[in-house]
Amino acid sequence: MVALARRSVPQPQCTDTSAFEADVLEGLTSTPKHVLAKYFYDAAGSELFERITEQPEYYPTRCEMEVLRDKAADIDKLIPPGAALVEFGSGSNKKARLLLGKAPKLAAYVPVDICGEMLEQEATELRADFPQLKILPVTADFCFPFELPVEAKTAPVRIGFFPGSTIGNFEPHEAASFLRNAARILGAGAKLIIGVDLVKSSEVLNAAYNDAAGVTAAFNMNLLTRMNRELGATFKPETFEHHAFFNRERNRIEMHLASLKRQKVKVAGETIEFRAGETIHTENSYKYTVESLSALARGVGWLPAGVWTDSQKYFSIQAFALGDETPTPRPAE
After folding, report:
1. Can you tell me the distance from the alpha carbon of 100 to that of 68, in angstroms, rounded to the nearest whole number?
2. What predicted TM-score, i.e. pTM, was given to this entire model?
3. Are the C-beta atoms of 293 and 196 separated by less than 8 Å?
4. Which of 87, 270, 282, 287 has minimal Cβ neighbours within 10 Å of its Cβ?
5. What is the DSSP string of 225-267?
């Protein structure tokens, strides 16, 4: 599956250097060239992403927080007593806190992320602030099957939480695979609460990924700096530029790093050739309508259970319930 990006203020990734090297070489020797978006998030990239969320053009974080603040009590009505909340790709717990503070009936919170050190730090803070709640972190790649703690498995029901419009970073078939996997993990009677960025004018979308301060450009370009530092690459950042645009045919924002000239770059001992204008595709961010996400979810057994939007209708929180005749979940692809 594609790697995730644009989570709510992510922490630096726990990355295996050999995996980084293998993924980068595979991507840069493919046609078209690409690098997995998860590699944005070294320490510098994570700091830059936090700055992106503060830019006036970048609306998703503000709009999602607005919905969670204003509609948390309504969302809580979907959560029965004793339920366990399972957050897929928890990163920062800022958004989960808005639900936890309005959901006193919850018995357990299960943050799931690939970086165990970050998870434990967040869990320690949450235990101090929510002493009545069992905080049960799980270190796992949520794109694939994983086991829940016993306390979550034995809860009357499990509620999935997937904020940040992270689902937009999946290709549509990968999003369907994630939803199947979530159904298998959460089990009978489950509900799933998803944050998703909505289709809107190209002007608003393009501005969000091309902020006037150049922070998103710096975030994208930092990928070259990281490859130079960690893989011994010889990228000259001044010979590349940030490109981001809304592809209306596919309803997605695309981010690229475009070569300004014909050049050769060494990466982990391999020579990579670039034509003038050739790009490295670094991120997709799909935008949905309420109807299109509902159709995708219905196709794998999730039935619509609620929709809330911000005042501008830029962003939505959508809830789904696992249907009685759910297709047999398959492992994530």
Report:
1. 11
2. 0.89
3. yes
4. 270
5. HHHHHHH-----GGGEEEEEEEETTTTEEEEEEEESS-EEEEE
Q: How many residues does the chain have?
A: 333
Q: Cα–chain-centroid distance for residue 60?
A: 12
- Rounded distance, CA 41 to CA 6, Å? 10
SS3 (DSSP) at 137: coil
- Per-position b or e across 161-192, b if 16+ CB within 10 A of its CB: bbbbbbbbbbeeebbbbbbbbbbebbbeebbb
pLDDT tens digits along 178-191: 999 999 999 999 99
- Residues 305 and 322: their CA atoms lie apart, in Å, by 10
CB 298 within 8 A of CB 145: no
Report pLDDT digits (tens) over 179-227: 999 999 999 999 999 999 999 999 999 999 999 999 999 999 999 999 9
First to last CA, the chain: 6
121-155 residues labelled b (16+ CB within 10 A) or e (exposed): ebbeebeeebeebbbbbbbbebbeeeebbeebeeb
Angle made by CA atoms 308, 309, 310, in degrees to the nearest 5: 140
For residue range 87-144, list pLDDT tens digits in order: 998 767 889 999 999 888 999 999 998 878 888 889 999 999 999 999 999 999 898 8
Burial of 304 (0-12, 13-18, 19+ CB in 10 A): middle
**Residue 112 main-chain phi, psi, to 5 deg:** -120, 125
- The residues near 166 (Cβ < 8 Å, ≥ 6 apart) are 4, 5, 6, 7, 88, 89, 195
**Tokens at residue 59, please?**
């609306």
Under 8 Å between Cβ of 168 and 196: yes
DSSP state letter for 42: S
